[in-house]
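Practice problem: predict the structure.
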Amino acid sequence: MRRLAFILASALATSTLATAPALACRGTAEYPAVEQEIAQSSLPADAKARLMQEWSEGKALHDAAHASDDKAKMKESLEILDRIKQQLE
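Answer:
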């Protein structure tokens, strides 16, 4: 009985740790929020279009980074996100 409890607890801990990076990723929450900020901004249409293009490229890179667990892509996608946010200030 104790062995079964240990196995179940180990499996739960392993699955929790395996999903933790995705749950803790700020880009997962911030990319959708920044998309809305761009849409609601009072920027000229051409500036919005440029930011949305950058956003699309960054979001695609971010999704690919999660899919491949590529830390370099993740870093680049978050740098793109930060540049966009800076332009919205």
